[in-house]
Write a structure and sequence with these properties.
four-stranded antiparallel sheet; mainly beta; about 130 residues
Length: about 130
């Protein structure tokens, strides 16, 4: 069974950068898409970004557009999230997840229920 493992979180000052990684291991990995979500204390899990696995199609939450970049390395079964110009409100646990089957509509990328195989998460803390 494929497992997803996130890494790269940490403590950074506002304006700084981090790059998160999500590596898949344990079997054949060929999802339709990969997504990054985050969850702050007391809040619901929210969409951050997603990418098709076999196409150059990406999606971003409005709150991170222009600051975050999602990318993938298919050969390494890894998806990345480059986070620049970080803000205190970006503080959260960041999770990656996989979408196995084709998304029936583009809006589906934004909903965590459309993904599975969640990793354990990596903490990102941005200090002001």
């Amino acid at each position: 069974q494929v497992q997803l493992v996130e890494s790269g979180g940490g403590l950074v000052q506002a304006g700084g950068s981090l790059r998160l990684s999500c590596a898949a291991s344990g079997g054949t990995f060929s999802p339709y898409a990969m997504g990054w979500f985050r969850q702050a204390p007391g809040k619901e899990r929210e969409f951050v970004s997603a990418t098709r696995w076999s196409a150059d199609t990406t999606y971003y939450a409005d709150s991170v557009k222009g600051r975050f970049t999602i990318s993938r390395d298919n050969a390494k079964n890894t998806v990345y999230l480059q986070m620049n110009s970080l803000k205190p409100e970006d503080t959260a646990v960041y999770y990656c997840a996989a979408r196995k089957n084709q998304m029936s509509y583009s809006g589906g990328y934004y909903y965590p229920n459309n993904y599975g195989g969640w990793g354990q998460g990596t903490q990102v803390t941005v200090s002001s």
